[in-house]
């Protein structure tokens, strides 16, 4: 068994007194009132009379019921089930006796409460199991003390402590009061993978019942007595800011309480990399109801003026970053011309192996292809919103956000309220996809509440959500391959860039598999704001790379999977260069699994199949996608998917997530696109922005996981990027045409 | 402002609102039934789907003044305790990811099965095409609808 010293997590195990007394009282009042029922339903027993706090992640009731405080915000990846499973596994408690509660934001108790980057389970794998294991050890110590027997002789099973020799046994509930008074152990044992009882077995979504009965749970559902609704009037274009506002007519409209202007940042505030915000000066309309405020919003007269160019230093994830925001009104047409210009001149060399220049000079044949993809809007189904209530120098917040800690310094500065006085609940997010990592809307809500001196819920309309930025950037990549007279691949050259960032990962496959390799990048500044979007940068590079490798394999007359496996064999046995950021064996593993599960080798000419594989967020994914054309429209008949993300905590939930990532990938590859004219986004709602719907969704998805005992890695993002490549390669098979620029299908252009 | 007596989930509710207010906002802001969701406000996403009589309608496009005597059923009133066959099938297949679209999906699916107890794949796709799921749970939604059909047929 793995013995783990808990000292690294000691601070995470401080007692959670505020939660023991029922948590934040603010909130989903009717949700709170439902808890005993839900608890009863889950456990079949009454609520306990008393709870005993074992550590900040769990408390045990005198009847053996366990409450797990799940630390990270939920946005659909089902961590509210899988994270408590980690605790329950090591605690050795029956799942039916576990009740899940969302922890509020509390850095000291819960560490980095990040939902993003496919880091949730990976980061919590040890700490949450330790929370369960330390509590179990304390219960065992309590039993030993009570029964006067050695603790080592005590065993646990399903929430029951036993001492075989003396034939004594007791439920956790009976020992919880004593256990809670004991010291937190310094060392605990964690189970081995083979001993897991919960982990690795599918458990249903703990929130499913609430979701299908429409219980309030999302940020958008937040209600509080006396709460007003606020909406914001944003500038009409990127590159514009507020000049003046004439609010008289609007103030007189029914239900309207106030019209105010806010500034999101204090002068001189040192921004975080996630303080992205194209529109820091805004007009807010506050009123009694959403509909009334929406009507007022249409009537508001505001004047706008052009922004001036700025350069800022922000604290990014990897240290200080310079951010240039040029002035001007940008258009997609201009972006395309700018990108093509930079793509045609040398970029910054990021990696070079061997002598690529000489290899290209000597080549018998060169294949060169360019790929591009547009800006994308995240379009979470739940539009952006935030509840805030400022009272004096305190603020209570409840908002659907992915990274609560990142917005704390901004709130402190903009509100002038110390961080100890900022309370934040983390309601379920109706999707996030990266967008809700940029929590400017929380600051906006809090500033509005502060000014109008009332609890408010800020609601973005769909149009506000879609047109105010923080998009997936637009990208471009040119790939070149050199072949000798025997059609062997001798060199590979990538030049990738984008607005405003480069998507390049120079040290990922196929780096390490090719003797002569050159990777260059470039970028172009913009005032259109961008941010993380499900598998940032990978979501473009995977498609470009995997489509290009498909053409390389075809040029070499090789089977598409075998060609990739050959490259990976080279990377494993005799890698080129030092810093290859992938495990060639695990990479090959997903390709082999998808090859087997899709029966790839049984060449079936009636099927138009595309394959693609990619590594990102520490996990490996490969897809085989079958597509046919029907009345000029592509139909995705089946996607077979293989994933290696280490131990799969909750297999059916992980499968659901992979199915979603695949559907999302197909949708964005086919239709995803946001264009601009004079700074104005050309789509503002779903009548213009085509989203994948049931008719276009894959008819069948078949997900497989590589079985191993490696600590879990990312799951939400890795299956997404390779879909773009699999779609491109299957479309080629179905139509005879290669597809280089996303979106592949638009309303105007019918392919095939 | 005008007063309306609305029949919602078998109960009569009086609201005093602007007659142009869509039922979506009457439900969410005034009746405090927030299971019905706002997604687009322009009849494109289906998140706001409720039943008007036996039909699935987009409540964001239904002014309160147009409701009259007709019965409105929302997700909260679809069944006593989440035991409608469609809800049960949703649990069995464990459909939701973020869950935000699912009330609308369930209301569309349950209206479909009322009309067409044994729908073909094409009928399912047509009836559900107005409901966007950004998380991409379409394959599970389809499976759950078929599960509900089978449960009804045994
Ligand atoms: S909110 Fe009514 S259809 Fe989208
Ligand atoms: S489950 Fe998230 S939008 Fe459907």
TrEMBL record, chain A:
Domain Aldehyde oxidase/xanthine dehydrogenase a/b hammerhead: 213-308
Domain of life: Bacteria
Entry-linked PANTHER family: ALDEHYDE DEHYDROGENASE
Signal peptide positions on this chain: none
Source organism of this protein record: Maribacter cobaltidurans
Protein name per its UniProtKB record: Molybdopterin cofactor-binding domain-containing protein
Database matches in SMART domains: Ald_Xan_dh_C
TrEMBL record, chain B:
Entry keyword annotation includes Protein biosynthesis: no
Gene source species: Maribacter cobaltidurans
PANTHER family in the record: BLR6218 PROTEIN (PTHR44379:SF2), OXIDOREDUCTASE WITH IRON-SULFUR SUBUNIT (PTHR44379)
SUPFAM superfamilies, sorted: 2Fe-2S ferredoxin-like (SSF54292), CO dehydrogenase ISP C-domain like (SSF47741)
Pfam families found in the cross-reference section: Fer2, Fer2_2
Keyword Iron attributed: yes
Tree of life domain: Bacteria
CDD domains in UniProt: fer2
Chain ranges of the 2Fe-2S ferredoxin-type domain: 2-78
Coiled coil spans: none
Name the record gives this protein: (2Fe-2S)-binding protein
Keywords: 2Fe-2S, Iron, Iron-sulfur, Metal-binding, Oxidoreductase
């Amino acid at each position: 068994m793995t013995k783990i010293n808990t000292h690294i997590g000691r601070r995470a195990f401080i007692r959670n007194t505020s939660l023991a007394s029922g948590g934040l009282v603010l909130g989903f009042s009717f949700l709170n009132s439902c808890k005993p029922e839900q608890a009863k339903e889950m456990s079949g027993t009454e609520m306990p009379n008393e709870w005993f706090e074992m550590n900040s992640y769990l408390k045990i009731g005198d009847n053996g019921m366990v409450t797990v405080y799940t630390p990270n915000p939920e946005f659909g990846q089902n961590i509210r089930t899988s994270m408590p499973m980690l605790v329950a596994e090591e605690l050795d408690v029956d799942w039916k006796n576990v009740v899940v509660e969302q922890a509020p934001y509390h850095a000291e108790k819960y560490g980095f409460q990040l939902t993003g980057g496919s880091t949730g389970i990976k980061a919590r794998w040890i700490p949450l199991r330790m929370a369960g294991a330390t509590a179990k050890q304390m219960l065992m110590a309590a039993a030993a003390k009570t029964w006067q027997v050695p603790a080592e002789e005590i065993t646990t099973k399903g929430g029951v402590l036993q001492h075989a020799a003396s034939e004594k046994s007791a439920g956790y509930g009976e020992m919880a009061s004593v256990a809670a008074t004991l010291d937190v152990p310094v060392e605990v044992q964690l189970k081995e993978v083979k001993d897991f009882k919960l982990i690795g077995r599918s458990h249903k979504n703990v929130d499913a019942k609430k979701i299908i009965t429409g219980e309030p749970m999302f940020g958008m559902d937040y209600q509080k007595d006396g709460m007003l609704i606020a909406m914001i009037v944003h500038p009409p274009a990127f590159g514009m800011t507020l000049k003046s506002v004439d609010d008289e007519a609007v103030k007189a409209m029914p239900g309207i309480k106030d019209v105010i202007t806010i500034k999101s940042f204090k002068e001189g505030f040192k921004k975080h990399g996630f303080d992205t915000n194209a529109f820091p000066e805004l007009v807010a309309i506050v009123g009694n109801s959403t509909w009334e405020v929406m009507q007022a919003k249409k009537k508001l007269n505001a004047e706008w003026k052009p922004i001036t160019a700025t350069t800022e230093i922000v604290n990014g994830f990897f240290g200080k970053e310079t951010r240039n925001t040029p002035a001007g009104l940008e258009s997609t047409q201009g972006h395309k011309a700018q990108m093509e210009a930079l793509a045609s001149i040398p970029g910054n060399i990021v990696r070079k192996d061997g002598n690529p220049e000489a290899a290209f000079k000597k080549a018998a044949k060169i294949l060169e292809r360019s790929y591009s993809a547009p800006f994308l809007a995240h379009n979470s189904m739940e539009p952006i919103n935030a509840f805030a209530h400022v009272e004096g120098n305190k603020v209570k917040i409840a908002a659907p956000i992915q990274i609560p800690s990142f917005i704390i310094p901004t709130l402190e500065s903009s509100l002038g309220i110390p961080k100890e006085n900022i309370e934040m609940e983390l309601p379920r997010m109706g999707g996030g996809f990266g967008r809700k990592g940029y929590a400017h809307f929380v600051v906006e809500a809090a500033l509005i509440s502060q000014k109008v001196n009332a609890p408010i819920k800020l609601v973005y309309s769909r149009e506000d959500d879609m047109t105010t930025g923080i998009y997936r950037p637009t990208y471009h990549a040119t790939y070149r391959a050199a072949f000798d007279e025997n059609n062997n691949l001798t060199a590979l050259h990538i030049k990738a860039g984008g607005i405003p960032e480069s998507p390049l990962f120079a040290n990922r496959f196929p780096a390490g598999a090719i003797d002569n390799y050159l990777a260059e990048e470039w970028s172009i500044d913009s005032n259109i704001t961008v941010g993380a979007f499900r598998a940032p940068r990978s979501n473009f590079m995977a498609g470009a790379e995997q489509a290009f490798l498909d053409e390389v394999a075809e040029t070499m007359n090789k089977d598409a999977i075998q060609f990739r496996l050959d490259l990976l064999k080279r990377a494993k046995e005799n890698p080129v260069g030092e810093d290859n950021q992938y495990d060639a064996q695990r990479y090959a593993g997903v390709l082999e699994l998808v090859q087997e599960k899709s029966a790839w080798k049984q060449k079936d000419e009636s099927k138009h199949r595309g394959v693609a594989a990619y590594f990102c967020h520490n996990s490996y994914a490969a897809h085989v996608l079958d597509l046919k054309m029907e009345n000029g429209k592509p139909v995705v008949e089946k996607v077979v998917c293989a994933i290696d993300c280490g131990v799969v905590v909750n297999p059916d939930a992980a499968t659901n997530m992979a199915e979603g990532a695949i559907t999302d990938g197909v949708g964005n590859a086919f239709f995803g696109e946001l264009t601009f004219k004079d700074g104005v986004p050309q789509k503002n709602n779903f009548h213009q922005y085509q989203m994948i719907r049931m008719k276009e969704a894959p008819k069948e998805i078949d997900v497989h996981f590589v079985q191993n005992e490696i600590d879990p890695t990312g799951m939400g993002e890795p299956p997404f990027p390779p879909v773009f490549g699999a779609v491109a390669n299957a479309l080629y098979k179905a139509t005879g045409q290669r597809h280089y620029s996303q979106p592949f299908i638009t309303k105007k252009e019918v392919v095939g | 402002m005008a007063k309306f007596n609305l029949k919602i989930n078998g109960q009569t509710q009086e609201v005093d609102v602007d007659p142009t207010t869509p039922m979506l906002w009457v439900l969410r802001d005034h009746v405090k039934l927030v299971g019905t969701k706002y997604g687009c406000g322009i009849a494109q996403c289906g998140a706001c789907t409720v039943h008007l009589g036996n039909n699935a309608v987009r409540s964001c496009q239904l002014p309160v003044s147009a409701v009259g005597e007709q019965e409105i059923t929302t997700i909260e009133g679809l069944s006593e305790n989440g035991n409608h066959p469609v809800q049960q099938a949703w649990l069995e297949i464990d459909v939701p990811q973020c869950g935000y679209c699912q009330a609308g999906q369930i209301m569309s699916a349950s209206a479909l099965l009322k009309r067409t107890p044994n729908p073909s794949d094409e009928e399912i796709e047509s009836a559900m095409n107005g409901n966007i799921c950004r998380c991409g749970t379409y394959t599970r939604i389809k499976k759950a609808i078929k599960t509900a059909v089978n449960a009804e047929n045994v």
